[in-house]
Amino acid sequence: MPKTSQAAGLHRASLAKLHDLDAALELMYYGWRGMTLEADDYLARQGLSRPHHRILYVVARRPDIAIGALIEILGISKQALNRPLNLLLERKLLTSKRSPEQHRSKLLRLTAAGHRIEQRASDHERKVMRQAFERAGASGTAAWMAVMEAIADNN
Amino acid sequence: MPKTSQAAGLHRASLAKLHDLDAALELMYYGWRGMTLEADDYLARQGLSRPHHRILYVVARRPDIAIGALIEILGISKQALNRPLNLLLERKLLTSKRSPEQHRSKLLRLTAAGHRIEQRASDHERKVMRQAFERAGASGTAAWMAVMEAIADNN
DNA sequence: GTTCTCATGTCAACTATATTGACTTGAGAA
DNA sequence: TTCTCAAGTCAATATAGTTGACATGAGAAC
Question: Which domain of life is it from (chains A, B) (predicted)?
Answer without folding.
Answer: Bacteria
